[in-house]
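Researcher: Sequence recovery benchmark, item below. Answer with residues only.
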């Protein structure tokens, strides 16, 4: 059996516990068995290539990114127990009061953290994928949210634990705080390493190894799961495995949450890196296929609704322009339409009415004033 780390005595809350300190990547004694991942990696890479190709079905890739990034933000937060829905998120962005204000704030913070990481990686003068960049993302993730007292943007200075009511009955105890900086420095070196062992590992396999190693180190007091899953998206960007972040892997991880945690644990207790990598690669392939199907479904819905609009005698240029905005503004008021179109209120009102008469959008409040509208079929499709 491969040994993947050592145990060291750590004390917290007056209890002595055995904290796990992982060995540096890549797996050794023995090395990761190539036959365990070659076929699955090929399937996953092909699935990502197909996903990249099908994105061309939609007139604007920004439409797809708007929904894909929000789904990932929502699902990764739901793994941590938030109850917010996609409709809540759209309501918040439209300025309507969502039902789950705190949960929506956490999801919105993830979006801000994700955008920061993506912007830095795409800027030639930006930060590389590094501990510093992850700390900056963590600061945004916990800003103003329920974890704001958990040292946002800072590596932990105390012993944490996972599961259980106290350190002594924890499911897992990560490394002591004084070991965290060196462990993260090793991880950062592995990300950027071009030595012989690292060079022959496919990028998706390295991504799987890095995600689990980050979760094992658990370097923050809160938000480790979300930052660890954001790290997956960052690595896909870093290694140019997808031209745009169209994959929402957290959906697969949420659906198989018990196995996800079991696979993480098995690496620490049994040295089963191969089992974890196989689970991760299957997740990428399945999530890419689901994202591909979602794009086809959205493209079909938008094309059908556009045809109906173009055939409607009362529709005009303003209603056409409004329709093209709906994928990135699925909840709105007439005043917001007026501002977006840069037109008069009567023209904006007429544009909305044209779409409403065709059943493309529907009014949500039933009020005479302060009315708001929804592209309900689109939201339902994204939420499915």
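Model:
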């Amino acid at each position: 059996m491969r040994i993947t780390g050592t145990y060291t005595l750590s004390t917290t809350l007056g209890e002595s516990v055995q904290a796990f300190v992982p060995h540096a990547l890549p797996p050794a004694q023995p090395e990761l068995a190539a036959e365990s991942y070659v076929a699955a990696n090929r399937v996953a890479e092909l699935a990502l290539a197909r996903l990249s190709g099908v994105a061309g079905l939609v007139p604007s890739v920004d439409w797809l990114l708007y929904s894909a990034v929000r789904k990932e933000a929502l699902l990764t937060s739901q793994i941590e127990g938030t109850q917010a829905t996609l409709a809540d998120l759209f309501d918040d962005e439209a300025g309507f009061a969502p039902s789950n204000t705190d949960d929506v704030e956490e999801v919105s913070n993830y979006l801000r953290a994700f955008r920061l990481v993506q912007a830095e990686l795409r800027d030639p003068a930006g930060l590389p994928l590094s501990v510093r960049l992850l700390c900056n993302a963590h600061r945004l993730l916990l800003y103003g949210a329920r974890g704001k007292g958990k040292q946002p943007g800072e590596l932990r200075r105390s012993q944490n634990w996972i599961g259980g009511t106290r350190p002594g009955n924890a499911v897992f105890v990560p490394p002591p705080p004084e070991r965290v900086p060196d462990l993260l420095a090793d991880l950062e070196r592995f990300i950027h390493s071009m030595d012989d062992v690292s060079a022959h590992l496919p990028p998706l396999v390295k991504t799987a190894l890095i995600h689990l190693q980050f979760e094992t180190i658990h370097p923050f007091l809160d938000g480790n799961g979300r930052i660890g899953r954001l790290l997956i998206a960052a690595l896909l960007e870093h290694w140019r495995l997808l031209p745009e972040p169209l994959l929402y892997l957290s959906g697969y991880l949420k659906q198989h949450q018990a196995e996800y945690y079991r696979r993480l644990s098995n690496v620490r207790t049994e040295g089963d890196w191969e089992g974890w990598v196989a689970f991760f690669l299957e997740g990428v392939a399945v999530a890419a296929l689901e994202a591909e199907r979602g794009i086809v479904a959205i493209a079909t819905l938008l094309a059908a609704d556009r045809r109906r609009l173009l055939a409607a005698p009362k529709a005009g240029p303003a209603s056409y322009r409004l329709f093209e905005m709906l994928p990135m503004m699925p909840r709105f008021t007439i005043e917001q339409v007026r501002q977006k179109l840069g037109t008069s209120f009567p023209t904006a009102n007429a544009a909305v009415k044209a779409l409403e008469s065709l059943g493309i959008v529907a009014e949500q409040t039933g009020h005479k004033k302060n009315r708001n509208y929804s592209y309900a079929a689109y939201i339902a499709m994204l939420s499915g």
